[in-house]
């Protein structure tokens, strides 16, 4: 089976969030199962030159806005699977990956270039796996092309929803310029008076998936559907949930090169060294018996920062430290900065994006906080499990699927979770976790339960392969 995965970001070429982790790891895991899988992603200003192995095409001609346009494509296997990186500086050489008024145009171009590249490769593709709104354009194009271009007649599309909150909306009048002139195509985009690339993907793809089973159910409900729940309910027979995996080549405390000391579930002594390192990096007093809470997150309202704002005082009251890495909304960045200024010997804050520090926090913290409002899958809670850092999460989406309350009677469970978006429930779980932390044997049991779980991509890749096979039989 030949599978082309399209994504707007992919590790190690580019990353703003979990989508990049998934898009980098899935093609690699598929390749390992014996599938012929490859990745297509843009080449950004941020993409390191060392990853661009050679030029695959320097004359990728396509028609854009009525004119011929010459793009290039680099080739790499830096993520462990064949990758083509679309090079078009006009669209992708910017200071950041997203955040421009014309993002819809940039990613429509990416989709168009990716399909042109697939055709140039001249090998029949069974599945084009599209990810989030940035790839909704290709879903519509392929639904259209397959009727009159024999090259595409047997190609099927799978569209994965990583975050329904981002929809890629723009004025319907732009569709002509983007190459979607037919009524058939425009109908797929039509949404509440404008065009939505997310709706296009959901409407035109052969199969839909979400990054966890619970999120797949939640987005069919009115309050979580962002106006698209009706479409998801209508297509629920084509919608399934596959929980993301973890790339244990990148997130493994036994081999992680960033850590002050490596450790495993068999010998946790290195974790203490990592804790010391973390406290020192944030210039906090090295009190190794006090619980360290960690947060690594985009600072947006999705991540439940309001609950952290309300609970921060309790974390200090229970004698804990709070170490935070993140960037995003100004109000949240300012909050953590003020908190750190008010309690510099209990709180550490690094504003920004920093891969190394993310690993340092995962390894050095005792407790990881993710009280999200909604969470399609969430990766940090699964990284935390492997690093012996006990997660406290809200029971939504993938957090609900992967974290199970520790039960003192049975000894089962890998963390703590609460249900309602209420600070009182969150604080209760903080107390419960700190109580267990102060009983070394109990704590070690919770750590063991999490560290020995297997959330590897192999498992998820097998489920995707089954989904692709099912899609081809439709
Ligand atoms: P989302 O995709 O909604 O941001 P996920 O938990 O699925 O959330 O994935 C987040 C990914 O981004 C993780 O790999 C996490 O370590 C990383 N990350 C988030 N914020 C930062 C940051 N400030 N610095 C480094 N890595 C970050």
What's the layout of helices and strands?
Elements: E1 2-6, H1 18-32, E2 36-42, E3 54-64, E4 67-76, E5 83-87, H2 89-92, H3 103-121, E6 127-131, H4 136-145, E7 156-161, E8 169-170, H5 183-189, E9 190-191, E10 194-196, H6 197-204, E11 207-210, H7 213-218, H8 229-234, E12 239-241, H9 269-281, E13 292-299, H10 305-317, E14 321-328, H11 330-342, E15 347-351, H12 355-364, E16 367-370, H13 380-386, E17 390-394, H14 397-402, E18 416-418, H15 423-437, H16 440-451, H17 457-472
Parallel strand pairs: 1-2, 1-6, 2-5, 6-7, 7-11, 11-12, 13-14, 13-16, 14-15, 16-17, 17-18
Antiparallel strand pairs: 3-4, 4-5, 8-10, 9-10
Helix pairs in contact: 1-17, 3-4, 4-5, 4-6, 9-12, 10-15, 13-16
Question: Bound compounds, please?
Answer: adenosine-5'-diphosphate
Shape: globular
For the record, the CATH class of the largest domain is Alpha Beta
Uncertain stretches of 5 or more adjacent residues = none
- Compute the gyration radius: what is it? 23 Å
For the largest sheet, list the strands in their spatial order. 3-4-5-2-1-6-7-11-12
Task: Quote the CATH topology of the largest domain.
Answer: Rossmann fold
Count of helix runs: 17
Let me know the number of strands: 18
Distance between the termini: 15 Å
CATH architecture term of the largest domain: 3-Layer(aba) Sandwich
Beta-strand residue fraction: 15-25%
Query: Which percent range fits the helix content?
Result: 25-40%
- Residue-averaged pLDDT, rounded? 97
- Summing up helix and strand content along with how strands pair, one would put the structural category as alpha/beta
């Amino acid at each position: 089976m030949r599978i082309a995965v399209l994504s707007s970001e992919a590790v190690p070429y580019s990353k703003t969030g979990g989508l990049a982790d998934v898009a980098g790891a899935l093609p690699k895991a598929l390749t390992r199962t014996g599938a012929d899988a490859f990745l297509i992603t843009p080449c950004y200003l941020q993409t390191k030159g060392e990853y661009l192995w050679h030029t695959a095409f320097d004359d990728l001609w396509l028609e854009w806005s009525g004119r011929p346009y010459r793009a290039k494509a680099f080739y790499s296997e830096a993520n462990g699977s064949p990758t083509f990186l679309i090079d078009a500086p006009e669209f992708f050489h910017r200071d950041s990956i997203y955040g421009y008024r014309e993002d819809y145009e940039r990613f429509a171009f990416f989709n168009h270039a990716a399909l042109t590249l697939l055709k140039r490769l001249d090998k029949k593709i069974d599945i084009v796996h599209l990810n989030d709104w940035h790839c909704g354009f290709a879903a519509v194009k392929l639904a259209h092309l397959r009727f009159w271009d024999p090259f595409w007649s047997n190609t099927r599309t799978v569209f994965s929803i990583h975050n329904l909150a981002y929809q890629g909306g723009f004025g319907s009048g732009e569709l002509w310029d983007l190459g979607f002139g037919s009524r058939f195509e425009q109908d797929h985009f039509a949404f509440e008076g404008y065009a939505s690339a997310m709706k296009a993907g959901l409407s035109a793809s052969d199969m839909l998936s979400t990054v966890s089973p619970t999120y797949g159910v939640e987005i069919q409900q009115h309050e979580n559907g962002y106006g698209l729940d009706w479409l998801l309910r209508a297509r629920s027979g084509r919608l399934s949930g596959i929980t993301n995996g973890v790339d244990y080549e990148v997130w493994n405390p036994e081999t992680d090169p960033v850590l002050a000391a490596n450790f495993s579930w068999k010998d946790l002594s290195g974790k203490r060294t990592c804790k010391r390192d973390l406290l020192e990096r944030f210039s906090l007093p090295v009190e190794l018996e006090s619980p360290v809470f960690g947060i690594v997150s985009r600072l947006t309202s999705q991540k439940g920062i309001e609950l952290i704002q309300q609970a921060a005082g309790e974390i200090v009251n229970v004698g804990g430290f709070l170490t935070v890495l993140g960037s995003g909304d100004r109000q949240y960045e300012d909050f953590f900065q003020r908190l750190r200024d008010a309690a510099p010997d209990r709180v550490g804050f690094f504003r920004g994006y920093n891969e190394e520090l993310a690993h340092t926090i995962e390894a050095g913290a005792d407790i990881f906080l993710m009280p999200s409002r909604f969470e399609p899958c969430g990766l940090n809670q699964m990284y935390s499990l492997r690093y012996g850092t006990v997660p406290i999460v809200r029971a939504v989406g993938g957090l609900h699927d992967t974290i199970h309350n520790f039960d003192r009677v049975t000894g089962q469970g890998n963390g703590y979770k609460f249900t309602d978006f209420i600070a009182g429930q969150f604080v209760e779980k903080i107390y419960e976790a700190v109580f267990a932390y102060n009983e070394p044997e109990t704590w070690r049991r919770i750590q063991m339960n999490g560290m020995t779980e297997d959330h590897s991509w192999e498992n998820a890749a097998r489920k995707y392969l089954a989904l692709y096979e099912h899609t081809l039989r439709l």
